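Hi there, hope your week has been kind to you so far. Would you mind checking whether the C-alpha coordinates look sensible for this chain? I owe you a coffee for this, so here goes:
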Amino acid sequence: MKAFVSTTSFLKPGGAAARELLESFFHEIVYNELGVPLKGAQILDKLDGCDAYIAGLDYITRDVIEKMPPTLKVISRYGVGVDRVDLAAASERGIAVTNTPGANARAVCELAFALMLAAARNVPALHNAVMDGAWPRSQGFELGGKTLGILGLGAIGKLLALRAKAFEMRVVAYDPCFDQAFGKAHGIQNLPLEELLPQAHILSLHLPLNEETRYLMDARRIAMLPRGALLINTARGGLLHEAAAAEALKSGQLGGLGLDAFEEEPLGDSPLKGLPRVVFTPHTGAHTEEAVHNMAMLSVRNAIDVLSGRPCPHLLQHP
Protein backbone atom coordinates (compact mmCIF):
# COMPACT_ATOMS: atom_id res chain seq x y z
CA MET A 1 0.00 0.00 0.00
CA LYS A 2 1.18 3.52 -0.86
CA ALA A 3 -0.07 6.89 0.38
CA PHE A 4 0.48 10.53 -0.50
CA VAL A 5 0.17 12.98 2.43
CA SER A 6 -0.13 16.60 1.29
CA THR A 7 -0.67 18.30 4.64
CA THR A 8 2.64 19.31 6.19
CA SER A 9 1.24 19.00 9.72
CA PHE A 10 2.22 15.31 9.73
CA LEU A 11 5.86 16.39 9.83
CA LYS A 12 5.34 18.41 13.03
CA PRO A 13 5.58 17.00 16.58
CA GLY A 14 1.79 16.67 16.85
CA GLY A 15 1.81 14.34 13.84
CA ALA A 16 4.23 11.76 15.27
CA ALA A 17 1.56 9.24 16.32
CA ALA A 18 -0.20 9.54 12.96
CA ARG A 19 3.08 8.94 11.09
CA GLU A 20 3.58 5.81 13.16
CA LEU A 21 0.08 4.61 12.28
CA LEU A 22 0.68 5.41 8.61
CA GLU A 23 3.93 3.46 8.57
CA SER A 24 2.26 0.45 10.19
CA PHE A 25 -0.17 0.14 7.25
CA PHE A 26 1.46 1.71 4.17
CA HIS A 27 4.74 0.38 2.82
CA GLU A 28 5.51 3.68 1.05
CA ILE A 29 4.56 7.26 2.00
CA VAL A 30 5.13 10.41 -0.05
CA TYR A 31 4.98 13.84 1.62
CA ASN A 32 4.38 17.36 0.31
CA GLU A 33 7.75 19.09 0.04
CA LEU A 34 6.34 22.46 -1.14
CA GLY A 35 4.63 23.31 2.13
CA VAL A 36 1.56 24.98 0.50
CA PRO A 37 -1.84 23.78 -0.78
CA LEU A 38 -1.32 22.00 -4.10
CA LYS A 39 -2.97 22.33 -7.50
CA GLY A 40 -3.10 20.41 -10.76
CA ALA A 41 0.14 18.69 -11.74
CA GLN A 42 1.57 19.29 -8.25
CA ILE A 43 -0.98 16.78 -6.96
CA LEU A 44 -0.86 14.32 -9.85
CA ASP A 45 2.94 14.09 -9.80
CA LYS A 46 2.76 12.66 -6.27
CA LEU A 47 -0.06 10.13 -6.77
CA ASP A 48 1.59 7.56 -9.00
CA GLY A 49 0.76 4.11 -7.60
CA CYS A 50 -0.97 5.55 -4.53
CA ASP A 51 -3.91 3.83 -2.84
CA ALA A 52 -4.68 6.74 -0.49
CA TYR A 53 -4.39 10.51 -0.67
CA ILE A 54 -4.49 12.32 2.69
CA ALA A 55 -5.31 15.82 1.55
CA GLY A 56 -4.88 19.21 3.15
CA LEU A 57 -6.33 22.33 1.54
CA ASP A 58 -5.40 21.25 -1.99
CA TYR A 59 -7.53 22.14 -5.00
CA ILE A 60 -8.88 18.71 -5.97
CA THR A 61 -10.85 19.70 -9.04
CA ARG A 62 -12.64 17.57 -11.64
CA ASP A 63 -9.76 17.77 -14.11
CA VAL A 64 -7.35 16.55 -11.42
CA ILE A 65 -9.63 13.71 -10.29
CA GLU A 66 -10.17 12.52 -13.86
CA LYS A 67 -6.39 12.08 -14.22
CA MET A 68 -5.81 10.32 -10.90
CA PRO A 69 -4.28 6.82 -11.16
CA PRO A 70 -6.63 3.79 -11.09
CA THR A 71 -4.92 2.58 -7.90
CA LEU A 72 -6.36 5.48 -5.85
CA LYS A 73 -9.27 4.35 -3.67
CA VAL A 74 -9.70 7.11 -1.09
CA ILE A 75 -9.20 10.86 -0.63
CA SER A 76 -9.05 11.37 3.13
CA ARG A 77 -9.45 15.06 3.96
CA TYR A 78 -7.35 16.30 6.86
CA GLY A 79 -10.01 18.73 8.09
CA VAL A 80 -13.74 19.24 7.79
CA GLY A 81 -14.34 21.29 4.66
CA VAL A 82 -14.60 19.60 1.27
CA ASP A 83 -15.38 22.67 -0.83
CA ARG A 84 -12.12 22.16 -2.72
CA VAL A 85 -12.94 18.54 -3.55
CA ASP A 86 -15.21 17.78 -6.52
CA LEU A 87 -17.34 15.12 -4.84
CA ALA A 88 -19.32 14.32 -7.99
CA ALA A 89 -16.13 13.68 -9.97
CA ALA A 90 -14.79 11.46 -7.17
CA SER A 91 -18.02 9.44 -7.18
CA GLU A 92 -17.80 8.97 -10.94
CA ARG A 93 -14.24 7.66 -10.55
CA GLY A 94 -15.21 5.35 -7.67
CA ILE A 95 -13.02 7.20 -5.16
CA ALA A 96 -14.21 7.43 -1.56
CA VAL A 97 -13.97 10.82 0.21
CA THR A 98 -13.77 11.22 4.00
CA ASN A 99 -13.21 14.08 6.45
CA THR A 100 -12.47 14.70 10.15
CA PRO A 101 -15.47 16.48 11.73
CA GLY A 102 -15.00 17.91 15.20
CA ALA A 103 -11.29 17.13 15.41
CA ASN A 104 -10.23 20.79 15.23
CA ALA A 105 -13.33 22.50 16.65
CA ARG A 106 -11.76 23.80 19.85
CA ALA A 107 -8.67 25.10 18.05
CA VAL A 108 -10.66 27.03 15.44
CA CYS A 109 -13.07 28.36 18.07
CA GLU A 110 -10.23 29.70 20.19
CA LEU A 111 -8.62 31.45 17.22
CA ALA A 112 -11.97 33.02 16.32
CA PHE A 113 -12.20 34.39 19.85
CA ALA A 114 -8.61 35.62 19.72
CA LEU A 115 -9.38 37.49 16.50
CA MET A 116 -12.46 39.04 18.13
CA LEU A 117 -10.35 40.36 21.00
CA ALA A 118 -7.51 41.49 18.76
CA ALA A 119 -9.82 43.38 16.41
CA ALA A 120 -11.87 44.93 19.22
CA ARG A 121 -8.72 46.36 20.85
CA ASN A 122 -6.62 46.83 17.67
CA VAL A 123 -3.88 44.71 19.24
CA PRO A 124 -1.60 44.11 16.21
CA ALA A 125 -1.38 47.81 15.29
CA LEU A 126 -0.69 48.79 18.90
CA HIS A 127 2.01 46.13 19.19
CA ASN A 128 3.71 47.41 16.03
CA ALA A 129 3.51 51.01 17.24
CA VAL A 130 5.15 50.16 20.58
CA MET A 131 7.88 48.19 18.80
CA ASP A 132 8.52 51.28 16.65
CA GLY A 133 9.00 53.45 19.73
CA ALA A 134 5.55 55.06 19.78
CA TRP A 135 3.12 55.12 22.71
CA PRO A 136 -0.31 55.71 21.13
CA ARG A 137 -3.71 55.93 22.75
CA SER A 138 -6.32 53.81 21.00
CA GLN A 139 -9.94 53.43 22.02
CA GLY A 140 -11.34 49.96 21.50
CA PHE A 141 -14.48 48.39 22.91
CA GLU A 142 -15.40 45.63 25.34
CA LEU A 143 -17.02 42.37 24.29
CA GLY A 144 -19.18 42.17 27.40
CA GLY A 145 -22.72 43.36 26.76
CA LYS A 146 -22.35 43.11 22.98
CA THR A 147 -24.33 40.80 20.70
CA LEU A 148 -22.41 38.07 18.88
CA GLY A 149 -24.03 36.69 15.76
CA ILE A 150 -22.85 33.22 14.79
CA LEU A 151 -23.53 32.00 11.27
CA GLY A 152 -23.35 28.22 11.56
CA LEU A 153 -23.94 26.75 15.02
CA GLY A 154 -22.10 23.48 14.48
CA ALA A 155 -19.26 22.10 16.60
CA ILE A 156 -17.14 25.26 16.31
CA GLY A 157 -20.06 27.68 16.61
CA LYS A 158 -21.32 25.98 19.76
CA LEU A 159 -17.94 26.21 21.47
CA LEU A 160 -17.67 29.87 20.47
CA ALA A 161 -21.15 30.55 21.88
CA LEU A 162 -20.20 29.08 25.26
CA ARG A 163 -17.08 31.23 25.46
CA ALA A 164 -19.04 34.32 24.46
CA LYS A 165 -21.52 33.61 27.24
CA ALA A 166 -18.62 33.51 29.70
CA PHE A 167 -17.73 37.03 28.47
CA GLU A 168 -21.31 38.13 29.26
CA MET A 169 -22.22 38.52 25.60
CA ARG A 170 -25.64 37.96 24.10
CA VAL A 171 -25.52 35.26 21.41
CA VAL A 172 -27.83 34.84 18.44
CA ALA A 173 -27.37 32.35 15.63
CA TYR A 174 -28.36 31.51 12.10
CA ASP A 175 -28.29 27.82 11.19
CA PRO A 176 -30.74 25.93 8.95
CA CYS A 177 -30.06 22.84 11.12
CA PHE A 178 -30.26 24.63 14.46
CA ASP A 179 -29.86 22.43 17.54
CA GLN A 180 -32.98 23.41 19.50
CA ALA A 181 -31.88 21.63 22.67
CA PHE A 182 -28.52 23.43 22.72
CA GLY A 183 -30.18 26.76 22.00
CA LYS A 184 -32.71 26.34 24.79
CA ALA A 185 -30.07 25.19 27.28
CA HIS A 186 -27.86 28.23 26.64
CA GLY A 187 -30.37 30.94 25.79
CA ILE A 188 -29.42 31.24 22.11
CA GLN A 189 -32.02 32.34 19.57
CA ASN A 190 -32.02 31.00 16.03
CA LEU A 191 -32.91 33.92 13.77
CA PRO A 192 -33.40 34.40 10.03
CA LEU A 193 -30.20 35.82 8.55
CA GLU A 194 -31.62 39.24 7.71
CA GLU A 195 -33.10 39.56 11.20
CA LEU A 196 -29.82 38.55 12.86
CA LEU A 197 -27.49 40.89 10.98
CA PRO A 198 -28.82 44.24 12.31
CA GLN A 199 -28.33 42.96 15.88
CA ALA A 200 -24.77 41.64 15.55
CA HIS A 201 -22.09 43.94 16.92
CA ILE A 202 -19.72 41.07 16.10
CA LEU A 203 -20.40 38.51 13.38
CA SER A 204 -18.48 35.22 13.20
CA LEU A 205 -18.70 32.93 10.17
CA HIS A 206 -18.74 29.15 10.63
CA LEU A 207 -20.53 27.87 7.53
CA PRO A 208 -19.35 25.54 4.76
CA LEU A 209 -18.61 27.11 1.39
CA ASN A 210 -20.99 26.07 -1.38
CA GLU A 211 -23.07 27.70 -4.07
CA GLU A 212 -25.64 28.89 -1.52
CA THR A 213 -23.08 30.46 0.83
CA ARG A 214 -20.52 31.89 -1.62
CA TYR A 215 -20.28 35.65 -0.99
CA LEU A 216 -22.98 35.32 1.66
CA MET A 217 -21.53 38.46 3.24
CA ASP A 218 -21.64 40.82 0.28
CA ALA A 219 -22.06 44.60 0.22
CA ARG A 220 -25.81 44.41 0.83
CA ARG A 221 -25.56 42.19 3.88
CA ILE A 222 -22.52 43.98 5.32
CA ALA A 223 -24.59 47.17 5.18
CA MET A 224 -27.23 45.49 7.36
CA LEU A 225 -24.79 45.15 10.29
CA PRO A 226 -24.67 47.87 12.95
CA ARG A 227 -22.21 50.58 11.94
CA GLY A 228 -18.75 49.77 13.31
CA ALA A 229 -19.41 46.02 13.63
CA LEU A 230 -16.59 43.48 13.63
CA LEU A 231 -16.60 40.58 11.18
CA ILE A 232 -14.64 37.39 11.93
CA ASN A 233 -14.03 34.61 9.41
CA THR A 234 -12.20 31.43 10.36
CA ALA A 235 -14.16 29.25 7.92
CA ARG A 236 -13.69 29.78 4.15
CA GLY A 237 -12.62 32.92 2.30
CA GLY A 238 -15.36 32.71 -0.29
CA LEU A 239 -18.02 33.42 2.35
CA LEU A 240 -16.93 37.07 2.42
CA HIS A 241 -16.75 39.42 -0.55
CA GLU A 242 -13.34 40.97 0.15
CA ALA A 243 -13.78 44.01 -2.10
CA ALA A 244 -17.09 44.83 -0.41
CA ALA A 245 -15.50 44.39 3.01
CA ALA A 246 -12.67 46.75 2.04
CA GLU A 247 -15.13 49.47 1.03
CA ALA A 248 -17.08 48.95 4.25
CA LEU A 249 -13.91 49.40 6.30
CA LYS A 250 -13.05 52.61 4.47
CA SER A 251 -16.53 54.01 5.07
CA GLY A 252 -16.63 52.98 8.73
CA GLN A 253 -19.52 50.57 8.23
CA LEU A 254 -17.17 47.84 9.42
CA GLY A 255 -15.11 48.64 12.49
CA GLY A 256 -12.67 45.80 11.97
CA LEU A 257 -11.99 42.39 10.49
CA GLY A 258 -10.38 39.24 11.84
CA LEU A 259 -9.63 36.84 8.99
CA ASP A 260 -8.05 33.41 8.95
CA ALA A 261 -9.48 32.47 5.53
CA PHE A 262 -9.21 34.23 2.19
CA GLU A 263 -10.47 33.96 -1.38
CA GLU A 264 -6.90 33.35 -2.53
CA GLU A 265 -4.46 31.40 -0.35
CA PRO A 266 -1.64 32.22 0.20
CA LEU A 267 -2.92 35.80 0.26
CA GLY A 268 -2.57 37.58 -3.07
CA ASP A 269 -3.48 41.13 -4.05
CA SER A 270 -6.41 41.43 -1.69
CA PRO A 271 -8.07 44.88 -1.44
CA LEU A 272 -7.95 44.39 2.34
CA LYS A 273 -4.16 44.63 2.50
CA GLY A 274 -2.89 47.73 4.23
CA LEU A 275 -6.22 48.76 5.72
CA PRO A 276 -6.47 49.65 9.43
CA ARG A 277 -8.15 47.42 12.00
CA VAL A 278 -7.62 44.28 9.97
CA VAL A 279 -6.08 41.22 11.64
CA PHE A 280 -4.82 38.46 9.35
CA THR A 281 -3.70 34.93 10.19
CA PRO A 282 -2.62 32.34 7.55
CA HIS A 283 -5.52 29.83 7.73
CA THR A 284 -4.02 28.60 10.96
CA GLY A 285 -7.17 27.95 12.99
CA ALA A 286 -6.58 24.21 13.17
CA HIS A 287 -2.85 24.51 13.84
CA THR A 288 -2.55 23.57 17.48
CA GLU A 289 -0.65 20.57 18.75
CA GLU A 290 -3.88 18.97 19.92
CA ALA A 291 -5.84 19.59 16.71
CA VAL A 292 -2.96 18.41 14.53
CA HIS A 293 -2.89 15.16 16.47
CA ASN A 294 -6.66 14.67 16.32
CA MET A 295 -7.02 15.45 12.61
CA ALA A 296 -3.96 13.47 11.60
CA MET A 297 -5.01 10.37 13.50
CA LEU A 298 -8.59 10.49 12.25
CA SER A 299 -7.60 11.12 8.62
CA VAL A 300 -5.28 8.09 8.71
CA ARG A 301 -7.88 5.89 10.41
CA ASN A 302 -10.44 6.92 7.79
CA ALA A 303 -8.11 5.92 4.95
CA ILE A 304 -7.26 2.60 6.59
CA ASP A 305 -10.94 1.84 7.24
CA VAL A 306 -11.82 2.40 3.59
CA LEU A 307 -8.88 0.38 2.26
CA SER A 308 -9.55 -2.44 4.75
CA GLY A 309 -13.23 -2.66 3.81
CA ARG A 310 -14.37 -1.64 7.28
CA PRO A 311 -17.26 0.77 7.93
CA CYS A 312 -16.00 4.37 8.02
CA PRO A 313 -18.23 6.73 10.04
CA HIS A 314 -16.83 9.79 8.27
CA LEU A 315 -17.44 8.70 4.69
CA LEU A 316 -18.80 11.64 2.67
CA GLN A 317 -18.58 10.13 -0.79
CA HIS A 318 -19.10 6.43 -1.42
CA PRO A 319 -16.94 4.77 -4.06
Q: What stands out?
A: The two ends are 18 Å apart (CA to CA).
